[in-house]
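Problem: given the chain below (167 residues), write out its structure.
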Amino acid sequence: MSDWEFVKNRTATEGAVWKSTDGLLYKRTGGEDLRAETEFQQLAANLGYPVPEIVDSGSEDGRYFVVERAIGDTSLHEEALADAGRDGQVSYQVISTAAAVASKLLQAQARHPLPAAPWFEKAAFAAEVFEENPDLDIPRVTHLQGAPGHRPHGGRPALARDARHTG
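Solution.
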């Protein structure tokens, strides 16, 4: 991986995240679960969900990989934290961008309701979330299981993706 710089180990499963030396691409490596996640991501992109563009995928050295186009150096989450750290307020630009991403996400969900992929419970740490927040286990939240898997918090501009959890 001489053209790639290590970023971090993936958090939800085995594998790692790499960034191209020119900063234009990200590469995730993993096993069969990454292949299933990639197929779902391609489906989501085709349905209009704001997800990273996949430019390559396949097997290499016995491991599955997916290459995505980079879309910025900071996430909306990081930008919001930086704003709040300066003066306690999140800028209009960050809020406006987050609202635009959320709008794209909600429009895609309304147009194409799909069941969550089997890997979503694991990738979203759903069991841990419900264990730590038992008040979330109510009928309204249960209906969310019918929503397509996505990473809405901290997404980068134009995407519902969180770099902290793409691993």
